[in-house]
Amino acid sequence: MRLRLAAPLLALAFLALGLGACALSHDDLLRKSSSFASRSGLKPVQIQSGPFTLQAYEHITDSAAPVRVFIEGDGKAWLTRTQPSPDPTPYTPTALLMAGADNSPNVAYLARPCQFIFTPNCTMPVWTYDQYSEATIAAMNTALDHWKGHKLELVGYSGGAAIVLLTAARRNDVINIRTVAGNIDTSGFTSYHHVSAMPADSLNPASVMARTASIPQIHFVGEDDRIVPQKLADNYQSRLPAGNCSKVIAIPNADHVSGWPEHWPLMAGRLLPCTTPKSYYQ
Fold first, then answer.
1. Which of 80, 237, 260, 279 is deepest in the core (most CB within 10 A)?
2. What's the CATH code, domain 7-263?
């Protein structure tokens, strides 16, 4: 049977862990994430970007070093395959947990629109049908200007990987990219799962690969990931132009939702293609 939407499949990962039954309120989730960020030395920042106010956290200690920005996944966008969530704030903010495990001198976290902070423009299409729309990508891109003056290292988890690639294609200050369990080809994702395509105005990171292929990048995939399996990243990699600076690395004992914060310190140390050790700090 053909499903209506691809996005609910990502929600299945959370439902499989029983997180759909959690009773935590929006305020509870914000307090929980803020407490973790504080313990990790990350200070809260609210960034006004287009129609949204985006929640961010940062730890900046070196004015000359890049800022490594972790971009969150789709969060709690759906409650079931067919029922959108009234609040996309993630129960488990995986990108924030990875940021807390990172020992770079400059670390930042950027949530997606309407996660943690609701504004009058926060309606359900923002985190369902329009999560990769031009308006959303423009807002995320503008938010990255908060760290203007630094070079940027972008890390995207799950749907945040699409945001990373789509914004990197618009910028000249991104020096490397890492995606984690990332949806880096939304058309390939819907085709693999035999579900309806994303809306016509949804942007696909695979469509800008010619502009991002020369940026040093690693696409980390979980060996046990059934939501965004390695074959999707391999297919993306195979279509990149010759001389690209990209590679795919499979991580054992990781699926779509678990294992990533624990593995992150070693993942972050993997040498990026087209670089020498620490070359991006020079």
1. 260
2. 3.40.50.1820
